Amino acid sequence: MRFAKGHGTGNDFVILPDPDGTLPLTPALVAALCDRRRGIGADGVLRVVRSAAHPDAEASSAGAEWFMDYWNADGSQSEMCGNGVRVYARYLAEAGLVAPEGTFDLVTRAGVVPVTMGEEIAAAMPIPRVYVSSSATVLEQSFTGTAVDVGNPHLVCAVDEPTLEGLELFRAPVIDPLIFPAGVNVEFAAVGPAPAGADLYRRMRVYERGSGETQSCGSGACAVAAVAVHHAGLESGVVVVDVPGGRLTVTVTPNECVLQGPAVIVAHGDVDAQAIRQLVFS
């Protein structure tokens, strides 16, 4: 089985080229591929498949050729992944399947996402919807947060810099299952001085449902940016979000949310199908 490996600000993915949708992808296989000791290792899997070949894309493809079939590291599926969109786009460009410059539409489970190619890749994400207050508990310490929908669910908790640095995110934060019945990505964000060209700045760590703490979360950066703009009393703003894996820039307006940052393909290879099967069924 052919694969590639890529990352966006340290949020890494196994990429499986399957344009005709013939690969029998299962939760157990995804989890085996993402295993960092016995598989390839990643925060998730991106299956590169044509919209016409995947049933989840048929209703929303609007003529867009490619569908991002995204799976979390535990084998669960997710609606959206902002870093995944950009890494998927980089793969398409390097494989000669889209132009290396310009804009094209990519289908996700959260709808069609326009992608603009360049040295960095920008994705016009679903407009964040800030909707209710809730809380997350980490090792018996409770944090108040704001729920945000970016095509997938987020809870953004404001913390100070020492708290952010000292958080132990080796297990999932406890959240309200009535508000988040399908789970939630929990972001912890600290305020800092905005760099030149930005209106606001946040430093962020994230625990992603189905993957654990990751080096970055693109949709999470959008959620953090939306809350920052909302709490600042602004209608629009450019927010720089630093994550452990690098820097993302989010531009929020009443009609748009654009996530921009680097995306890199680092490897291509073959998976030993027999070894993976042994891992799945062991």
Automatic annotation (TrEMBL):
Q: Which UniProt keywords apply?
A: Amino-acid biosynthesis, Cytoplasm, Isomerase, Lysine biosynthesis
Active site feature: C81, C81 (proton donor), C217 (proton acceptor)
Reaction equation(s) it catalyzes:
(2S,6S)-2,6-diaminopimelate = meso-2,6-diaminopimelate
State the top-level EC class: isomerase
Q: Where in the cell is it found?
A: Cytoplasm
Leader peptide range in chain numbering? none
Q: What is the E.C. number?
A: 5.1.1.7
Which pathway does UniProt place it in?
Amino-acid biosynthesis; L-lysine biosynthesis via DAP pathway; DL-2,6-diaminopimelate from LL-2,6-diaminopimelate: step 1/1
Query: At which residues is there a site annotated Could be important to modulate the pK values of the two catalytic cysteine residues?
Result: H154, E208
GO: which molecular function terms?
Answer: diaminopimelate epimerase activity
- What residues bind substrate, as annotated? N11, N72, G82, N83, N152, N185, E208, R209, G218, S219
Q: Family, per the entry? A: Belongs to the diaminopimelate epimerase family.
Q: Which NCBIfam families match?
A: DapF
Functional summary from the UniProt entry: Catalyzes the stereoinversion of LL-2,6-diaminopimelate (L,L-DAP) to meso-diaminopimelate (meso-DAP), a precursor of L-lysine and an essential component of the bacterial peptidoglycan.
Q: How does it assemble?
A: Homodimer.
- Can you say what this protein is called? Diaminopimelate epimerase
- Its gene? dapF
